[in-house]
């Protein structure tokens, strides 16, 4: 996918991450893959007509039929390994067995653990992750940028939940090193640094804060003395079954820990500002999302100024309240004069969300069908594109869905774009929890979507025929 050069004065920004985690090529290939981010910019125009994403599908020109060109920079050995990795990841028994092994006491046996981590490192880890340290990750980013027609990186130190302040402090240092990696790399080779709030603020505390925020939403007179200025977090149709009775106030220790969590986030924001690298905050499951949005939007109010949008929150379109929350957030931010940066995803916690709602006797917060999720996603994208075409704001579109990719590419040809790739990295043992969670969450996606594997098979068949004849 080619990139169109745009001038620094341009104002409209949009990004697309197609595939986000599971990609057509192994990550250490120098070619762009299906995990992409398209950054769009345009001169500030007079009022633009409304954009209807549902009508753009047929205008997009995303050619996936030329497999020879698509995989031109990937050696046959890597293509074979990538195809095998994706085939294994698409087999539910393999995922189930992997989950069982990693959660078993066998992992307490050092020799067994080394064998398992060695296998993972040379299969799934090598395919999906950029490297274990700054040096390896930097090499991957440079290779993608130089060999992929200016492909940029979205850097994600793939650490999972923290349980205490000591773990949070370690994770903070890792995120700050990630910003340093971005700063040390060639200009424009890194488009975003990605942070998970539950890695810098204890998970149990995020659950407590979310309970209190939900209760205040249901009872506006409920006072939260520690609460800072923020944007709307919940709508009238947001799930609140997590909090069925009035929660206890935060203890002084919990308030202190919350302040520490916010200070960690602000330190990352400040470093990103000084390094000129935007920050994207990941969405998580609904039991902690209110607290995540609270911290994200509070930081955005402090750091998003004029055309410089530093902090991006995330909206999960598979949630029934997604569109309403997006509209409320944008309207409130507009009234406050705060430009909004939003990453739009379909969502990655479907299994646990449905299980939790069912266990409590409530309807799932997830849309009833994938078609409804697609509709919500495109509606939210249309809303944001129309807003930022005529005012401040920024949008990151993240999707595994090929039609959404076609839609976004079609619009990108009109507005101009740059391309980025989502790049998780970190030590194998640290990233294992992330890989297993993604495999568990996306098993349905991988088992039903055969596009990546089919493209690889087509290219391998083409190369085999070329070698024989």
Condensed summary:
This protein is of the alpha/beta class. The protein is about 50% helix and about 10% strand.
Describe the structure.
With 469 residues, the protein is α/β, with parallel strands linked by helices. Helices cover 50% and strands 10% of the residues. It is built from 16 helices and 9 strands. It has a 9-stranded mixed beta sheet. β3 (152-157), α6 (165-184) and β4 (190-195) form a beta-alpha-beta unit. It is globular, with a radius of gyration of 22 Å. The chain starts with 12 loop residues before the first strand and ends with a helix. Residues 1-26 and 28-61 have low confidence and may be disordered. GO terms for molecular function: FAD binding; proline dehydrogenase activity. Converts proline to delta-1-pyrroline-5-carboxylate. It is an enzyme of class 1 (oxidoreductase).
Provide the β-strand percentage band.
5-15%
- Stretches where pLDDT is under 50 for at least 5 consecutive residues are 1-26, 28-61
Question: Tally the helices: what do you get?
Answer: 16
Strand order of the largest sheet: 1-8-7-6-5-4-3-9-2
Overall, the morphology is: globular
Oligomer: single chain
The radius of gyration computed from the alpha-carbon positions, rounded to a whole number of angstroms, is: 22 Å
Helix content: 40-55%
Task: Report on the biggest sheet.
Answer: 9 strands, mixed
**Structural class designation:** alpha/beta
Rounded mean pLDDT score = 82
Tally the beta strands.
9
Order of helices and strands: EEHHHHHEHEHHEHEHEHHEHEHHH
